[in-house]
Amino acid sequence: MADEKRLSARRKHTLKSCMLVVATNLLEAESVVKVDEREKFLSEKCPPLEVPHSRDELVELCHKLHEQINLSEEERYSIEFKLNMVINEVRDLSIKIVDLRGKFKRPRLKKVRMSADAMLKALLGSKHTVNMDLRANLKQVKKEVKEEDKQLRDVGDWRKNVEDKSDRKKMFDS
């Protein structure tokens, strides 16, 4: 059965090569999508630059670009600040977790031979009034002794018993 389920070396090789081809195609498609997204983002954020011919228009364009740079720098700074805050918070929480784990180590417990009554007394203190004597709660059954069993126990002298048996044997022989 195991031989029927195993793949041959040639089949394994073809499967691996097919998987590699599919993986390379997926990676190429992903890289194309990333390039398209980047170009789309850049076209939205940075429109094509038209250089004006007069000095006043150039100064105005510089002021406009300077304002856009300031806005993007403010955005970058706020995002960076938020990121640093989150990183610090994560670091603090991980330190707290390590501290909590370190403080509450479970001690190795020793085996103690203790009865149930003693254990309840230790846990509940003087409030413990329940008696855990389990044998006292069991139902007591009187055993009926049969007469035959009594006779077997009270055999007495073994020689008598042998003589009785010999009489019985004589009965069966006749």
TrEMBL record:
GO BP annotation list: cardiac muscle contraction; skeletal muscle contraction
Entry keyword ATP-binding: no
MF terms (GO), sorted A to Z: actin binding
The organism's place on the tree of life at top rank: Eukaryota
Pfam families: Troponin
Claim: Magnesium is one of the keywords in the record: no
PANTHER family noted in UniProt: TROPONIN, TROPONIN I
A cellular component term, taken from the record's GO annotations: troponin complex
Function: Troponin I is the inhibitory subunit of troponin, the thin filament regulatory complex which confers calcium-sensitivity to striated muscle actomyosin ATPase activity.
Keywords tagged on the record: Actin-binding, Muscle protein
Gene name, Swiss-Prot/TrEMBL: LOC114464801
Record lineage: Eukaryota, Metazoa, Chordata, Craniata, Vertebrata
Family of this protein: Belongs to the troponin I family.
Database matches in InterPro entries: Troponin, Troponin_I, Troponin_sf
Organism: Gouania willdenowi (Blunt-snouted clingfish)
Protein name as it appears in the record: Troponin I, fast skeletal muscle-like
